[in-house]
Design brief:
The chain is of the alpha+beta class. It has 7 helices and 5 strands. Strand 2 and strand 3 form a beta hairpin.
């Protein structure tokens, strides 16, 4: 199994979650995944350094990651007609990939692909991407400040994506207490 760069791993994972995704959407999915990762994990998933390009957030390193997948036999690129235009879309091949994502990173990538696949490229950009904090008030050519995605105030409920997913994994592994048992313990503490 070949080891891909981090950026190529992200693109391939997104292709698996959204086979046939177009080039514009694939690049924006990577950006949105980094936005969500900054929000919930305090860091990005990719190694991209986004700049406000003529068509929104972009890093030219996207092309190197895409080519790494194509040249290595991990993805195919197809020109598909869309009305009078051609759209480049990507599909993963059957080649096995070794991912080194944490569970929260994989969940964020999956969430982004599943949530935003239904959008066409224009509405994805206009309604979602351009409304993200790093894009607001940014000027064409500027490097985007992804730290704007971090929550300004701590979550009053103490939500932690990593803790939630660890809890799910614990339950899946059979490490839990039945609700009735936990409630009995709480009642006993309250009576004491």
């Amino acid at each position: 199994m070949a080891k891909l760069s981090r950026n190529a791993q992200v693109l391939r994972f997104l292709m698996e979650a959204a086979p046939g995704v177009g080039r514009i959407k694939l690049a924006k999915f990577a950006y949105l995944a980094d936005c969500e990762a900054h929000r919930y994990l305090g860091r990005g998933i990719t190694r991209f350094r986004y700049r406000f390009d003529n068509h929104g957030p972009f890093d030219a390193a996207f092309y190197a990651a895409k080519d790494e997948l194509k040249d290595g036999g991990f993805a195919t690129e197809v020109d598909e007609p869309v009305g009078p235009y051609k759209q480049v879309s990507y599909r993963p091949t059957d080649a096995a990939v070794e991912y080194d994502f944490s569970r929260p990173e994989a969940e964020i990538l999956r969430y982004v692909a599943e949530t935003y696949m239904r959008y066409d490229a224009r509405s994805l950009c206009d309604d979602i991407v351009y409304q993200t904090p790093p894009m607001r008030k940014a000027k064409v050519g500027e490097v985007l400040d992804m730290n704007k995605m971090k929550q300004r105030k701590p979550d009053p409920l103490g939500f932690s994506l990593e803790r939630v997913l660890a809890g799910e994994a614990s339950v899946e592994a059979g490490n839990y207490r039945p609700l009735e048992e936990a409630m009995d313990e709480l009642r006993a503490r309250h009576r004491a």
